[in-house]
Amino acid sequence: MPIYKDEITNKYYFSTRYKDVYGNNKRKVKRGFRTKREAKAAEASFLTEIETGYSDSNTFDYIFNHYLDNTDLREKTRRRKENEYKLHIKERFGHIKMNQIKQNQCQEFRSYLMKNMPSPNSARTIWSGFKVVINHAKKHFGLRIDPTISITPIPRVKPKPKYMLREEFEDKIDNIDNQDYRELLKLMFYTGLRVGEAMALTWNDYNKYKKELSISKTMDVTNRKIYNRAKTESSEDIVPLPIFINDILIERYNLMSNNYKYFDDNYFIFGGMEPKHYSHLHKKYKQVFPNYDIHTLRHSYASYLANNGVDIFVLQSLMRHSQITETMQTYSHLYTQKKHDAIRIFDNI
């Protein structure tokens, strides 16, 4: 097919006809190539993709982008995967046809990650992203041989979570000089909410009579975009409130409903018509709690409950974990006293 030159931009483009997956006649036009050769190569690549369709002879780059376009990813997750791909994967595998990727190439990539990433968990995240594309090719493109199948997975190193005592939190929280942030952080400490969940709350999510919050959405703290779904399926649940936290919310509701002329229950509990900015909250938090990240509040909530004898299955429900193993792996070390209490049965003879 001929290649054309745009007389306005002095760049080349191709225009070609093809049939889509439904057999309909279509035209593809792509512009902006610096040379005629680049335009011709791009056209040939496009026609090859159309011809091979869902075949494992497509390149890793093609299948990676197909995975992005056909998977329901959060915007934040998509950005992370795109960045990891550009930095670590594309140069090594992007141009290779999926069915031509070799085991030794994958082994070398694993070694590169283990040597160059700041932590084993960072290496594991990128390796998992690489494996996801392999699995996508197996599921949708007929890839028969997984080149990573015999390679040792990168193990997850689960750090012991940091937490602060309730006494320390209460001793310092009043040093937060903004009432909205002070009350938001109190809510997080005494409910175990993630920061995105707390900042996404509207008054529609609150029931003062039942003393509970309904968690059904979260906020991407990098761009303040609200997603109408929780972090995970198990995260969508009802969260009970201590009486004193419920009293704080009742007072906030009365104050906001009197101060905002057009107030309704769609207003954000910590904000108004718009949610607060996470960057400002984080700055205020680190001024008072420099040794803890903000997720420590969630761990502190769980730790306080565990240390005060709350059953681990109840803790799983309160933390909204999908599996009891997640709760046990993170907090079972706090149940040492319960082990001692259990073994005392032998002393009661």
UniProtKB/TrEMBL annotation:
Membrane-crossing residue ranges in chain numbering: none
Cited InterPro entries: AP2-like_int_N, DNA_brk_join_enz, Integrase-like_cat_sf, Integrase_catalytic, Integrase_recombinase_N, Integrase_SAM-like_N, Tyrosine_recombinase_XerCD
All copies of domain Tyr recombinase, residue ranges: 159-344
Highest rank taxon of the organism: Bacteria
Keywords per UniProt: DNA integration, DNA recombination, DNA-binding
The keyword Cell membrane is annotated on this UniProt entry: no
Pfam families in the record: Arm-DNA-bind_4, Phage_int_SAM_3, Phage_integrase
Family: Belongs to the 'phage' integrase family.
The protein's name in its UniProt record: Site-specific integrase
Protein's organism: Staphylococcus nepalensis
